[in-house]
From TrEMBL:
It is a multi-pass membrane protein. It comes from the Bacteria. It is found in: Cell membrane. This is MFS transporter. It comes from Heliorestis convoluta. Signal peptide: none annotated. The lineage of its organism: Bacteria, Bacillati, Bacillota, Clostridia, Eubacteriales.
Length: 386
């Protein structure tokens, strides 16, 4: 029962992000942002989220997981409501930072709860289930955001989401068990985590996956609008990848890293993401864009369970909040740098999806060459700390 409550909370936490994907770039431009400032506003949430993720282990160690989730959700709700009263792009930028900081401790704390419920031989399967929660949010969020944008107003979207976050915060406070404040989490040696090759590989893979996702968050709504697609169609594009990811998560493919090791699924997932980014550069119709998002969703579905299971494999109980904080910090770093880098290079007429595809290729190749020995070795178990 506890597991399903945590899954539901993860859905809502990620829906808070995904529901705004079709909205935020357009809302920033409505408030007067140019193309690059739009990219900055889009990235601001993830920038603050990244900084908070890196400190999540310490924060959770101070106040406990349940309190971290409760106060994080409340601060995020304040941020979402604040969007409705922003009167210019710079105010919106500041509020995005508050929103991102609030959510920074929520996901690492939730995944620490889930990790304790998974036996070592089923970690890939367990992390796939958490991936289903994220994918459900990614499926429903953009679609709901697009529909609300078409049928009501952007302000209704902000009111609905802030209310949902407040309700979730108090449900969590009531239902989740209190956890002891972990002394280990207060004193985790972050450099020690980063010196573990398997962990570092998972972090880089997470960065690559979300660099592509961040590029889509910035460029896809603008490309779709330029091709005459509606807000609902933009939502469908983001939901398409989530639907495919869910299909992967609920099939035996989600458990492949439990059987053959974590490394090969990581590599395959990154290659698929690279091809999806390149394909989006040439897609000009709803159908062709959906096909590319389906391909991205397949790559996401292969990569995510392997990466998160790697984090669980290579951290002990006292380190896990910090290890997941770093993992989701790399998620956020990818979402930050994706829009910023691609938005910057659009000034020279470089297609954002082409740039992202080349970047993913370079990073994937570098990762393979750097960790060639790991990629050719089947490793599932816990890696000794260094």
């Amino acid at each position: 029962m506890l597991k399903w409550i945590i899954y539901a909370m993860v859905v809502i936490a990620f829906m808070d992000t995904f529901v705004q994907l079709p909205v935020m770039p357009l809302y920033a431009q409505l408030l007067g942002a140019g193309l690059f400032l739009t990219a900055v506003v889009t990235s601001a949430y993830s920038f603050a989220n990244m900084l908070g993720n890196f400190g999540a282990g310490w924060c959770i160690g101070q106040i406990g997981r349940r309190n971290a989730i409760f106060f994080g959700l409340l601060l995020a709700a304040v941020g979402v409501f604040g969007y409705s009263i922003a009167n210019d792009a710079y105010t919106l930028l500041a509020i995005r930072l508050i929103h991102g900081l609030g959510m920074a401790v929520v996901v690492p704390a939730a995944f620490s709860y889930l990790a304790e419920l998974a036996p070592p031989s089923e970690r890939g399967k367990q992390m796939a289930k958490s991936g289903i929660a994220i994918a459900v949010a990614a499926l429903l969020g953009p679609m709901l955001g697009g529909i609300i944008l078409d049928k009501l107003t952007v302000y209704h979207l902000f009111y609905i989401m802030s209310s949902l976050l407040i309700v979730t915060a108090f449900v969590v406070r009531k239902v989740l068990p209190a956890t002891p404040v972990a002394q280990e989490d207060r004193s985790v040696n972050i450099p020690s985590l980063l010196r573990r090759p398997n962990l570092l590989m998972a972090y880089v893979a997470a960065f690559i996956l979300l660099f592509a996702k961040g590029t889509m968050a910035f460029a896809l709504p603008l490309a779709a609008q330029a091709n005459g697609l509606s807000g609902t169609s933009i939502g469908i594009l983001f939901s398409a990848f989530a639907a495919v990811a869910i299909l992967v998560f609920v099939t035996p493919l989600s458990r492949i890293s439990d059987k053959i090791g974590r490394q090969v699924p990581l590599l395959i997932g990154m290659i698929i993401v690279m091809f999806a980014m390149g394909g989006l550069a040439w897609a000009t119709t709803l159908t062709s864009m959906v096909v590319m998002m389906v391909i991205y969703g397949f790559g996401f579905g292969i990569l995510f369970p392997a990466a998160t299971a790697t984090v669980v494999d290579n951290s002990d109980d006292g380190e896990r909040s910090a290890a997941f904080g770093l993992f989701y910090g790399m998620f956020s770093l990818g979402v930050v740098l994706g829009p910023l880098a691609t938005g910057y290079f659009t000034r020279w007429g470089i297609d954002p999806f082409i740039f992202a595809s080349i970047f993913v290729f370079v990073m994937t190749t570098s990762l393979f060459l750097l960790f060639r020995d790991i990629f050719t070795t089947r490793t599932i178990g816990f890696e000794s700390k260094g």
